[in-house]
Amino acid sequence: MELSRFYRRGILIVLGTFLGSAAIVLAATGLAPPSRRAAEDLGESTESVGPFRLLERSGREVTDADLANRVGIVSFIFTRCPLQCPKISSIMKGIQDKLAGTDVLLVSLSVDPEYDTPAVLDEYAKRFDADPRRWWFLTGDRDRIYDLIQSRFKLSVMVDPNPVPTADGKVEMIAHSSRLALVDRGRIVGLFDSNDPTAVEAVVSQAKRRAAPAWLRALPAVNASLNGLCALLLLTGWSLIRRRRLRDVAGTGRDSGPDSAPSPASPILHVPAVRGHVFCMVAAVVTSAIFLGCYLTYHYQAGSVAFRGAGAMRWLYLSILLSHTLLATFGVVPLVLVSLNRALRGLFAAHARAAAVTFPIWMYVSVTGVVIYVMLYHLPAPASSPLS
Question: Which fold does the domain 41-195 belong to in CATH?
Fold first, then answer.
C-alpha cells in the first residue's frame, strides 16, 4: 500500500536519530567503566542508617526515629581537627544558607566523641552560626559511632597511630572521610565529596528534591504513566483506523491528494472505528499536553536527576534520552500539528500520509519516556571502588 512508504519514512527517521544520538554520545563521553565519583547517587534500595542513640549538643538524645521522616545531610568532623574539619564545617554552613526555608536537616557527627562533649560541640557550632533547629551536632559512644560510619555509611574512620605533622606542625589524629552523606527518611541514598564544588551543589539539589512535597516527588511516576497511556492510545487509535482503512478506504483505490478538495467529515465520523480513532488521537494529544505541564512543573520545582549508571549502560541511557528529546521537540510537535490541521480541513488522504510518518516517531517518544523513567529511577546503582 501507498502508506507503507510513509511508515517506513517515520521508522527511518527514528532509527537515524537514535544512531546519530548514539554516535554523538559515544564521541562525547566514551564508555568509561564505573569509577569513584565525586557525587554518587546510591539509589532507592540502599542501606538504612539503622538503630542508634546519640547525644545532641543541647544534651537531648537523638535516635534513628528522628531521621525516619526527614531528609538530612551528614558530615563527619571533630573539634580538635586542624585541617579538613573546619573546611567541612564551613561548607556545611554554606549549605545551611542555601537550604534556608526547607525542611532539610544538617547533621555533624563527631569522630572524637570522648573529647567532643555536648558542651564542646556547642562552642564549636557557634563558630559556624549553626541554627540549632536545622543543624545538629552529635556525639556518643566511640565504638558505636565508628561501627555506624563503617558498617552503615560504608566510609572509613580510624585513630591514626602515627599521624604525620604538616609543615606548620598541625596533626590530624583521626583519619576520616570528608564525604557528605545524603539520608532520605532513614536511608543512605548518596555520598558527595565535600572538596568538589560540583558535588556540593549536587547534594544541595538532591536534598531539595527529596524534601519536596509528596505530590511533587510523585510526578516522575505520573509522567511515566502518562507516556505509557499515550502509547496505548496511539496503538489503539492506529489499530482502529488501520482496520477501517483496510476494509473500506484501501479497497476504493482512491486518494484525493494533498491539494484536492476536502472530503466531508460528518459521514466519516458516523463510522464507529473512525470515531474511536478520533477519540484515541485527541486523547493522546491531551495526554501529551498534560505530560508536558507535569514535566515542566517537576523540573522547575525539583530540578533534574542525574543518571547514576556508568559504562555501556550510561551510553545507552544518554543515547535514548538524546534521541527522545530531539524527536519529541522536532518530530512529534510539528508533525502532530500538521496531521491535525489536515484532518480538521477534511484532507484525509494527506492527513493519513502525515500521520503515517508521525506514528512511529510518536510511539518511540512515548515508549522511551517510560524506559527513561525506569532507567533513571529503578536501575540499581553500579558497583564502585571502596569508599573513603
Answer: Glutaredoxin (3.40.30)
